[in-house]
Design brief:
By secondary structure, the protein is α/β, with parallel strands linked by helices. It is built from twelve helices and nine strands. The chain has one domain: TIM Barrel, CATH 3.20.20. Helices cover 51% and strands 13% of the residues. Helix 2 crosses helix 4, helix 6 packs parallel to helix 7 and helix 11 runs antiparallel to helix 12.
Length: 276
């Protein structure tokens, strides 16, 4: 059983929903990334999504694009992102880690080498925005060989038949993109999210987690009430960038991250308790 499957089993047993923060490896600094991951886990993150810096992050809005640019300027790439996870594993053996990125670096490394190195470093899953389910057979074979999950996105515009195809290739959980467009855009419609999550669940028993548009505790609670978990990305990346730009020291940056996830954790837990 993978760390992700184990974590969702634990959450279901406890009647809780997943909180999944997203950060960019190497942002706000290479040296701080592992400490940041530990701070997020300590604050109640159930899974940590680590963005692999890429020169053309087409699904990202301006906030995360700038995070990628800052990390690239510091030399962070795919191998460095894996090394971050390896260092994190020396301090935390249980919190699942998902690498989120784009096809080019994975294809350049090669599926076999990627799977072997990622597994060795303690990576639990991969999400590649631009590899469609029709072209994932070879990559999935190697990920499954080492026990890694492959997370897929489903969007509001995904046709029903394609949901079924994606669900057959996915493992770990389904990431539902709650808004049309790029990360950090728009406002959430809870009723629309609930309807679409219900449609996805007709195709799979995997947990369905929702990202894009989660900005604070209130929006996280609304989404958690109709899904299995929430992903917070742009709001956290912007918070870290703002604190770093203010000249604050590393301790203040870590405290800002911890405080944001603690707030989201409390709101999500409260929403589940109130619904019980």
């Amino acid at each position: 059983m993978s760390r992700i499957e184990t974590r969702f089993k634990e959450l279901r047993a406890a009647g809780r929903k997943a909180v999944i923060p997203y950060i960019v490896a190497g942002d706000p600094s290479v040296e701080l990334t592992v400490d940041l991951m530990c701070a997020l886990a300590d604050a109640g993150a159930d899974i940590i999504e680590v963005g692999v810096p890429f020169s053309d992050p087409m699904s990202e809005g301006p906030v995360i694009q700038r995070g990628h640019e800052r990390a690239l300027e510091r030399g962070m790439r795919l191998r460095g992102s894996m090394d971050v996870v390896r260092a994190f594993r020396e301090r935390d053996e249980t919190t699942p880690v998902l690498l989120m990125g784009y096809a080019n670096p994975v294809e350049h490394m090669g599926h076999v080498q990627f799977a072997d190195r990622a597994h060795e470093c303690g990576v639990d899953a991969l999400l590649t925005v631009d590899i469609p389910p029709e072209e994932v057979v070879g990559l999935n074979r190697e990920l499954r060989r080492v026990g890694m999950d492959n997370i897929f996105l489903i969007a509001p515009t995904t046709p029903d038949a394609r949901m079924g195809l994606i669900a057959r290739e996915a493992s770990g959980f389904i990431y539902y993109v709650s808004l049309k467009g790029v990360t950090g855009a728009g406002n959430l419609d809870q009723a629309a999210v609930a309807k679409q999550v219900g449609e996805i669940r007709r195709h799979t028993d995997l947990p369905v987690c929702v990202g894009f548009g989660i900005k604070d505790g209130k929006s996280a609670a609304a989404v958690a009430a109709v899904s299995d978990g929430v992903v917070v990305g742009s709001a956290l990346v912007q918070k870290l960038a703002d604190v770093a730009a203010s000249g604050a020291d590393d301790a203040a940056i870590l405290e800002a991250a911890r405080g944001m996830i603690l707030d989201i954790r409390e709101h999500v837990d409260a929403s589940v308790s109130n619904a019980a």
